[in-house]
Fold this protein.
Amino acid sequence: MFYGYWEKAMKLTYRKALNRGWEPVLYHTDNGQRTAAILKRGRKWMEIMWADGSKKRVQLAEERYMRPMTSKRG
């Protein structure tokens, strides 16, 4: 399958997420906090992108572990 140059190479930053209309969040995990952005939000699931560019589909209930990023510094 062909991937565009943005699929594998893009690293997510606070400013890139805002410019694309996504919601930057801090995701609290067992190993600390990870930076992510909410790409799509459905009825039961949402798709998030981690700062390293990988994507994950999570349930909406996982939103309780997220808080909005209010500045570039977190």
Remarks:
- The chain has a mean pLDDT of 85.
- The first strand starts at residue 23 and ends at 29.
